[in-house]
Amino acid sequence: MKVEAMRAIHVRATAAIAEVLRDRMVTPLFQPIVDLSSGLVVGLEALARGPAGTELEFPDRLFAAAHEAGLLAELDMLCFERALECAVVASAPPPLLFINAEPAVLDQPVSSRVIEMVGNGLPFRYILEYTERALPTSPGVLVHLAGIVHEFGNGIALDDVGVDPMSLAFLPVLEPEVIKLDMSLLRDPDTEHTRSVCTAVAAEARRTGAVVLAEGVETEDDLVTARRLGARWGQGWLFGRPAPMGQVTHRFDPAAAAQVPPPRPGFHQARGTPFQVASGHGRVVSGSATQMTAALARLRNLVAAGSHAVIVMSADETDAPAFTRLLADASAHTRSVIMLDDPVPGESAVAVIDPAYGSAALCVESASGRLVFLDRLPAVADVARVLLSRLGPGRLADGVDRPDARRPQLPPDLAF
């Protein structure tokens, strides 16, 4: 009986979502994002809504039904298309349009409709929002998509920062243009957790020029708190509830797009092997057994100091025993260990980034034994990006299955 009931639910979900897709029954609402100093609206975030008055109107049920029907990728792409379509035809397009990306389907091909609109030119910059949920499952895809977004003059945002401390470690790797503080920080501004998150976010914003945005600003007290936490922009019911584009009457800040760091085409793409990248940042030495042991010991100490590190590793067979021991130590201390299933030929490399205890990377040229040890954050993040760009299907070091992280099958001449 249970099997029949589940089959019936699946059939209903498939039929309902198929109808939504066929008739393009997604109507995005748009919520303002405001400069906390000037009060001007700097952009809009698109929020998907299904057919009004039905059980699929709100996004939780809409996306749950699409997942049940096996049509999540198609729905997510339709939401992206509809957000662009409504903003493009607006009488006064926003300077910035924030659009969410569904983590489970980040590796899907881009639709011809999106390609057409982007190819014709957009009257705004769009900011693609990654949520924390994508970090442990699709890190390689995140890096690749960020590169595509930048190639076409747009930007990325990391959403829900503060829910999972791992997001802080990914900040220097992704270097998002906008960092969105989760509303939970606004609700508990004086906890040690909130203070540590906001300290790390402020340091990253100073280093990269990223804009810090506070979510969930609902009252004047929230506004005061958001400023105290270091937010420059804010979003929430205090500034306006989501509404159809035709009802948007906000006064936009014409300089808003210029407040976001400019795109950096090529920044997220691999520019050589990990050892080649590392040698451009630090001194190459002829690695003896003593030097290798000392470098690995420094990495172990860094990993042991905290549990929120992101560790990305690739081990050549020559160096496998030493790196395997480090991997075992890392797995015991942190859940964020990513081991490349397709190692870099002739090299071994590991990058460790922890928001509280520092960063370091070790890259070894296996045949010669030469090595480079780095402890400056930008250099370590550079090595991590090169490693993540090579990430393919495999498993996390803690044994949790990782979804296929292959690169999206995009046309060679145009994407996003």
Structural notes for this entry:
This protein has 416 residues and is α/β, with parallel strands linked by helices. The protein has 14 helices and 16 strands. It has helices at residues 2-23, 59-69, 72-88, 112-120, 139-151, 166-174, 183-187, 192-208, 220-228, 256-259, 274-279, 289-305, 320-333, 377-389, and strands at residues 29-35, 41-47, 96-100, 125-130, 155-161, 178-181, 211-215, 233-235, 285-286, 310-314, 337-339, 347-354, 358-365, 370-374, 394-395, 401-402. The strands form 3 sheets. An 8-stranded mixed barrel has the order 1-2-3-4-5-6-7-8, surrounded by 4 helices. The chain has a 6-stranded mixed beta sheet with strand order 9-14-13-12-10-11, with helices on both faces. A two-stranded antiparallel sheet has the order 15-16. The model is unreliable at 392-416 (pLDDT under 50).
* Percentage of residues in DSSP E strands: 15-25%
> What would the principal axes of the Cα set say about the shape?
globular
**Roughly how many Å is the radius of gyration?**
22 Å
- Counting DSSP E segments of at least 2 residues, the number of strands comes to 16
The end-to-end distance, rounded to whole angstroms, is: 45 Å
**Would you tell me the structural class of the helices and strands?**
alpha/beta
Number of helices: 14
CATH class of the largest domain: Alpha Beta
CATH superfamily annotation of the largest domain: EAL domain
> And the CATH topology of the largest domain?
TIM Barrel
Mean pLDDT score: 86
What is the strand arrangement across the widest sheet?
Answer: 1-2-3-4-5-6-7-8
Order of helices and strands: HEEHHEHEHEHEHHEHEHHEHEHEEEEHEE
| Main pleated-sheet profile | 8 strands, mixed, barrel
What is the helical fraction, as a range of percent? 25-40%
The low-pLDDT segments are 392-416
CATH architecture of the largest domain: Alpha-Beta Barrel
The number of domains: 2
